[in-house]
């Protein structure tokens, strides 16, 4: 059983025989705010707490990853962090970046918020105040969300979605998000594991056209500072397309969505 004891940061570092040479706002996750909620949502998607068995005094390291370096740089600035960004080891065709933060106060606060080691297999719903829920959703969306525009029967349409390995987390997200959007809850789909990753089951929810517009307004309506420009631009592109070309038709089937080619990524 792991028991945390609250001590001053200086005493904590001294008692663990550690000296922190890289600055970071150690109190970042202690108080709810728009920026804190966004980063927390992003960590739920593309972050993890790694356990190092050879470091008994403080075995936890926060690892934040992204295929887009500027997104990690944005998060690093938000946390006032001096921790470096490096390329993440992977195959020759895989390019990703990571920032590794070894700080007992940061990792303790994240664990208290529900970000446990091996998060992929034990993630439960995160209790986010409703005031900051849109920021949390936007952060999670920037990590594990998708949005694209494609053509169905020669008509441009938009689709967005979220994916998670935790059924309990995505179920709670589905309930809270649809309630905020004032729409019917979405069906949760179980994704068939690929041959390369047969043990990792994923679950997703998807939004179409009108519901995508409500989702966009929910995530960006308060003119946030933190967001992934590439994804927001797709929602903005849809607004332009709809004004000029869109004719509302019956929604296509799920099979139709998957067979039609994306035209904006």
Instruction: Determine the structural class based on helices, strands and strand pairing.
Output: alpha+beta
- Shape call: globular
Radius of gyration, CA atoms, in whole angstroms:
20 Å
Give the tally of β-strands. Answer: 9
Q: Report the portion of residues in β strands.
A: 15-25%
Order of helices and strands: HHEEHEEHHHEEHEEHHHE
Q: By CATH's scheme, which homologous superfamily of the largest domain applies?
A: Homing endonucleases
Class of the largest domain in CATH? Alpha Beta
Q: Could you list the spans in which at least 5 consecutive residues all have pLDDT below 50?
A: 1-17, 251-265
Number of helices, counting only DSSP H or I runs of 4 residues or more? 10
Instruction: Please give the largest β-sheet.
Output: 5 strands, antiparallel
How many domains, in number, for the residues? Answer: 2
CATH architecture of the largest domain: Roll
Strand order of the largest sheet: 7-8-6-5-9
Average predicted local confidence, pLDDT = 82
Assign the CATH topology of the largest domain: Endonuclease I-creI
Terminal CA distance: 46 Å
Q: How would you describe what is shown here?
A:
It contains 10 helices and 9 strands. With 265 residues, it is α+β, with helices and mostly antiparallel strands. The protein has 2 domains: 12-122, Homing endonucleases (Endonuclease I-creI, Roll); 135-264, Endonuclease I-creI, CATH 3.10.28.10. The protein is globular, with a radius of gyration of 20 Å. The strands form 2 sheets. The chain has a 5-stranded antiparallel β-sheet. A 4-stranded antiparallel β-sheet has the order 1-2-4-3.
């Amino acid at each position: 059983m792991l028991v945390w004891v609250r001590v001053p940061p200086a005493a904590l570092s001294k008692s663990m025989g550690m000296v922190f040479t890289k600055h970071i706002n150690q109190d970042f996750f202690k108080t709810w705010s728009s920026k804190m909620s966004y980063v927390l949502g992003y960590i739920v998607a593309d972050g993890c707490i790694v356990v190092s068995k050879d470091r008994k005094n403080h075995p936890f390291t926060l690892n934040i990853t992204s295929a887009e370096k500027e997104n990690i740089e944005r998060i690093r600035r938000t946390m006032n962090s001096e921790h470096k960004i490096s390329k993440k080891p992977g195959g020759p065709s895989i390019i990703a970046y990571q920032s590794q933060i070894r700080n007992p106060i940061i990792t303790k606060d994240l664990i208290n918020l529900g970000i446990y080691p091996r998060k992929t297999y034990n993630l439960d719903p995160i209790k986010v105040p409703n005031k900051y829920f849109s920021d949390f959703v936007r952060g999670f969306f920037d990590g594990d969300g998708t949005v694209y525009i494609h053509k169905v029967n020669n008509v441009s349409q938009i689709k967005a979605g979220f994916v998670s390995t935790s059924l309990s987390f995505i179920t709670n997200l589905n309930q809270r998000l649809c309630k905020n959007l004032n729409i019917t809850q979405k069906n949760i789909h179980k994704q068939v594991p690929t041959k390369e990753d047969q043990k990792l089951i994923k679950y997703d929810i998807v939004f179409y056209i009108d519901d995508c517009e409500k989702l966009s307004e929910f995530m960006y309506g308060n003119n946030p500072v933190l967001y992934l420009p590439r994804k927001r631009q797709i929602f903005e592109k849809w607004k332009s397309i709809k004004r000029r070309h869109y004719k509302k038709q019956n929604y296509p089937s799920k099979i139709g969505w998957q067979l039609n080619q994306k035209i904006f990524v």
